[in-house]
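Appendix C reproduces, verbatim, an entry submitted by the partner laboratory led by Prof. M.T., so that reviewers can inspect both the input and the predicted structure.
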Amino acid sequence: MTATGNHAQRTAAMIGCYIPAMPGEHQYIVTEPDPALQDYRKTAPEHPVLRDADAKWYVREERGGWILGPYERNAPAWAKFGVPESFRADLLKLDLERIEQEQPIAVSDVLLRTPGISLSRNGGYGTATSLRVRGSDPGQTVLVVDGMRLADASTTDGGADFGNLFADDIERIEILRGPQSILWGSNAIGGVVNVLTNRPTAPLEGRVSIEGGSRNTLNARAGVGGSGKLLDWRIAGSTFTTDGISARTSGTERDGFERQSASGTLTARIAPTLSADLRGYYSHGSNDFDGFSGDSRAFGVTQTWATYAGINATVLDGRLASRLAFIETRTDRDNFDPARSVRTKTFDAQGRTRRYEYQGDLTLSDMVQVSFGAEREEQRMRTASPRDNTAPVETTSAQADTNSLYALARITPVAGLTIDGGVRYDDHTRFGENTVFSAGASFEPWDGGTRLRANYSEGFKAPSLYQLFSQYGFADLDPEHAKGWEAGIEQDLLDERVTFSAVYFERDTDNLIDFAYCPTSAPLPPECFIPGSDVERFGYYANIDQSHARGVEVAGDALFGPIFARANFSWVEAEDRTEGSTFGQQLPRVPQYLANAAIGYQARQGHSLSIALRYSGETTDRAGGDVLDEYLLTDLRGELHVSGPLILYGRVENLFDTDYATAKGYGTLGRSVHIGLRTRL
């Protein structure tokens, strides 16, 4: 018999015995030190422990505070061959089961099954992909990967490229809906997608996966890393290639796509209260695409670099944690048309964003915590559309800087109740000063099985450099402003085997920027000419005054033994409130109704089989334009644990080969079959 917990195998080995005891991964709740408990322990040697085997939980002392731990059913084994020397009661990485069950290729494959999120894509993988959160515009969502904001200053909306972001080496994805400008700044009107890659927990570990599928698709990923007393490190890479589909529905040839990526992280513990972080990300994608009339030999190449360098320090006995970081993202996009006779390059764009960040987290007391920070963002853009002749290439360059200050306070006046409030100040070189506010509260009454929350938040988004200064730009654009609120409830039922949540939200956006088409007959207004010239253009960017969005998101998860089920439903009413012919119409490419459902079986050995449904309601391609019909897609997924950590998996996407569209005139993937292997080393 041994009472050494995680180290039972090591203890037994000291006396020449082997005990097949393996630590399991669990979730725990650990409190801050309890003064009453500390006073008790000064005079009482007895270790307070409360166990309830029937309820499958226990409470005991932990480092002067309390720990609540469950006797979790079917908890996965960890450290099967002994606990690493570097392990010091650290937090383990979160379970990847949910993401791995989805078997996603791109991050967007995971996001579109989330309440309130719709997606449109101009063809197959690698093409322009637009994400809309609660009816917001694509450029109003911030994408963060390992603390690096992947925004392209040269794109039309200044947002992120979700088309080239694949599910490589991902640990978890966090989605924040609604205006999030207090902490995340401009562009966060719709929300934030925060992607976190894997972090090592053992001296040496790795993951490898490879899959093949329809249209000669090949997807391979690998990652390796290690954790020690002084260094944590990980590097990962991936390659993807597919023959694809015709980008335009009028085309007959397939438009292929290939992509390679690499990422890396390094954390150095310089001292007990001081550490340094280095992170990097690179991707290279090449995709074929069609012209408006159909088949074309045109193709595009996109490269993205992101780097992060940061210092982390704690002072005041750990009550103040500080982070100082430098982040740079760069994007280089080039389009080519081999059919041209003089100049094959049709488009050239480079975007660069540099960010300087400081953030402090201060614990004033057990009831009051404050986060505060300062940021500087520098955006640079260069773009050109070379003509098929020998004339000099006309290049447009532009820049903008933003200096910011923010603060967010969290107060816990009584147990179960948290109140927060924040303010952010931005000083933009082109649009001057702007201040936004937020306030919210969450409450867990009774036994904690019910969670109530409500918040109010404001958002700010400056026009992108492309919207201001490109050949379709309009320099007199105004920034977008948003105000929104939401209220929701989460409820655990049947001993936490069922979880239910419901949220109601509203958001008003002023000065919403959209593309305005010029009339087809003269006389043309001044806006229909490229600024500073007499060259006509077919449209320009303009403020459409106002939009209003409201909706309901309902979600539920259930687990009964080996049977699991989850479902969500979203009603999103996103209206154009501009006076005129489009007043009251649903915003383009925003379905009013969205739903997802999945049910499956997971055996004790890990084998699983599930079926998933995804429904998208009717929408329009643009205001007052063509209708995109509703559709329902069905997917099948399964996993077979072959031996040890080796898993054979497969899926059939769009099982019934449903014909549907997310953007008028662009193709979508039909029935697709994929089979793969993955393992952990």
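The domain at 97-108+185-680 is CATH 2.40.170.20 (Maltoporin; Chain A). Additional entries are available on request from the coordinating office.
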